[in-house]
Amino acid sequence: MPLETAAPVEDIAGADQEFLYTLNFGPQHPATHTTLRLILTLDGETIVKAVPDIGYLHSGFEKLGEDLDFNQYVTIVDRMNYISPFANECAWFTTVEKLIGIELTPRCKYLRTILAELARISDHLLCVGAAALDLGALTGFLYAFNAREKVYNIMEAASGQRFHPSYCRVGGLMADVNDDVVALIRDFVKTFRKVHADICRLLNRNRIFIDRTKGIGVLSKEDAINTSCSGPVARASGVVRDLRKDEPYLAYKELSGAFKIVCGKGGDCYNRYLVRMGEMLESWKIINAAVENLPSGPVNVDLNDKLTIPDKNATYRSIEGLIQHFELFMWNRRWETPVEEVYGANETANGELGFYLVADGTGKAFRARTRPPSFIHFAVFPMMMEGHQISDVPAVLGSLNIIAAELDR
Q: 104 and 41, same structural domain?
């Protein structure tokens, strides 16, 4: 892309304004994944200022939350972080169920936990694979995507959809899983360690990869806290915070002994890579423990609460189920919720994904606000890039794992 002479940048100290240039990095650049745009001010090849552009997807996610009911909105949250959509669903329904005061069944808690951890592994695999690809390591990308296909197969077997499962419902899940899904999960547990080891052998001591990531894009612990970073980005800087441990939800309290929080100290691209690799192993442990201790029983809360969609068998074979289904759909009679404000958050692959709801007593939100981790981390990008070279941009951007659909809401 051609360089253009920039207008004088008054707020850049110590730079000769006559020799500053502006470079549009993306959205066509492969490392920006067709949606992100970075406006770099350069002194030679040194970045003196970086301005991120969140893009123009115009998805209107938050406004749609005011028009769709709580169950319908599942199709929208799927498309926020579209790399691990099931984790988005868990965060949304955790907030709704907190508002209504629903206690999930043990089987539902375990199933949501298993699928959320599979989504975390899938997200981390894409982050590590794509970050390596942006730096020239094609083989790592192929290793990661072979494993991700197995996660998609599990999601498809459980929900009927590979990419956007839309599997959660208020008070439970769309349907229970069968033995085939459990077998697929166990197969993934058996084979994943080898995939993880292959990626480690390829990248952990790779001279080129280390030179491109170590000491690059350093984020101090203090800056990570002050800028509200979360997830692997914050933990790579030494911030010991994970909502699965600090504010347990789903089955994480029962499984707390099965995993630990993975943290780093350096706060650079290499540490963020190591934290994600370590977290995948911890997720593997959670899935292994959960699938082997999967409770029996229903996946949806009791039919008598009149808040959840009845099971198909109940709809077709009992008058109570038929009436409840009729009231929820044909009459558009939705839930009666408290008139309250509530915030709920889950620890997703990129960090704290939170939803802030203002409820007006109906079955849909009066206001729905999202706290997406990518939006926070993209805002930190300019501070991390100052003083680095143009060639460092793909390394830093890849280590942050910015998902564009979480930016323009």
A: no
From 322, 45, 296, 319, select the one nearest 177 (Cα to Cα): 296
Distances (CA, A) of 77 to 88, 151, 308, 340: 6, 19, 19, 21
Task: Give CA–CA dist 403/409, Å, rounded.
Answer: 12
| Residue at 307 is within a domain | no
List the chain pLDDT tens, one digit each, 409 residues.
344 444 444 555 555 666 799 999 988 888 887 778 899 999 999 999 999 988 777 778 899 999 888 888 999 999 999 999 999 999 999 999 999 888 999 999 999 999 999 999 999 999 999 999 999 889 999 999 999 999 999 999 999 999 999 999 988 999 999 999 999 999 999 999 999 999 999 999 999 999 999 999 999 999 999 999 999 999 999 999 999 999 999 999 999 999 999 999 999 999 999 999 999 999 999 999 999 999 999 998 875 556 677 777 888 888 888 887 787 776 555 567 889 999 999 999 999 999 999 998 888 899 999 999 999 999 999 999 999 999 999 999 999 999 988 887 7
Q: Of 69, 63, 112, 60, whose CA–CA distance to 88 is shortest? A: 112
Residues 173 and 28 in one domain: no
Residue with tokens 């192993």: 281
Q: What Rg, from alpha-carbon coordinates, does the chain have? A: 23
Supply the range of the domain harboring residue 69. 61-301+334-406
Distance in angstroms (rounded) separating the CA atoms of residues 204 and 278: 12
| Stated pTM of the model | 0.90
Name the E strands within 155-298: 168-169, 172-173
Tokens encoding 254 = 């029962």
Q: How far apart are CA 118 and CA 278, in angstroms?
A: 14
| Same domain (yes/no): 142, 25 | no
Distance of alpha carbon 58 from alpha carbon 390, whole angstroms: 29
Amino acid type, 15: A
User: Is 209 among the domain residues?
Assistant: yes
